[in-house]
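Hi all, posting the design record for the shared folder.

TITLE: backbone redesign
STEP: 1 of 1
STRUCTURE INPUT:
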């Protein structure tokens, strides 16, 4: 397992997850493919139900007895997410920026996040700071960048990922993201002195993630 710790692994997670020892992950924080960009991104062209069930059933044995998971998912697949993940809570990431103007329909300005508990995991939010709420307002990352310069088309806010990692893990714990994308989970884990297992099958996104990690290390 040491070969995967604090490294960006360029591989399909279905090939790597079986090599991770059972009961070794303290926190799962991930944003898996769920079909919302299937017309523009090849990596998102999956059969949602079977794909999600397969990776979830594969990674569950890898979670420690007292651990937790945060899974970003798609609005239109919320019923499926409840059925597969059986979450303890559904959290909301509210992002009012980047909504395309339209008079035809109400705009989607949120993403659901499924929070799953295994046993009695670490849970240490700041109640004074209202970190134990179920709605988190953060702008979409890189909202002012040209699309060809963005790290990833579905990047999540680094500060939001840091918040979940702070609440649900301790220093030196292992945070896993089997769908790393542009590297945000790994960067957030590194910022908070957590170890990470980061898997991404797209070579270009791996390069971006490694670059971001190097820049953070040099700061």
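Okay, here is what came back for every position:
SEQUENCE:
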């Amino acid at each position: 397992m040491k070969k995967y710790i604090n490294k960006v692994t360029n591989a399909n997670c279905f090939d790597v997850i079986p090599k991770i020892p059972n009961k070794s992950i303290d926190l799962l924080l991930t944003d898996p493919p769920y079909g919302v960009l299937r017309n523009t991104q090849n990596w998102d062209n999956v059969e949602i139900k079977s794909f999600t069930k397969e990776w979830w059933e594969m990674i569950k044995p890898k979670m420690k007895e007292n651990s937790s998971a945060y899974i970003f998912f798609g609005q239109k697949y919320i019923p499926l997410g409840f059925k597969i993940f059986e979450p303890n809570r559904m959290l909301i990431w509210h992002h009012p920026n980047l909504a395309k103007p339209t008079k035809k329909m109400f705009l989607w300005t949120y993403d659901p996040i499924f929070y799953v508990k295994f046993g009695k995991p670490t849970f240490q939010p700041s109640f004074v700071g209202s970190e134990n709420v179920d709605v988190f307002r953060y702008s979409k990352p890189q909202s002012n960048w040209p699309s060809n310069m963005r790290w990833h088309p579905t990047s999540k806010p680094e500060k939001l990922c840091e918040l979940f990692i702070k609440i649900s893990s301790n220093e030196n714990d292992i945070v896993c993201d089997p769908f790393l994308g542009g590297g945000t989970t790994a960067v957030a884990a590194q910022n908070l002195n957590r170890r990470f297992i980061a898997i991404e099958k797209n070579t270009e996104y791996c390069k971006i993630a490694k670059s971001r990690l190097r820049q953070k290390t040099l700061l």
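COMMENT: The chain is about 25% helix and 20% strand.
Let me know if anyone wants the other runs.
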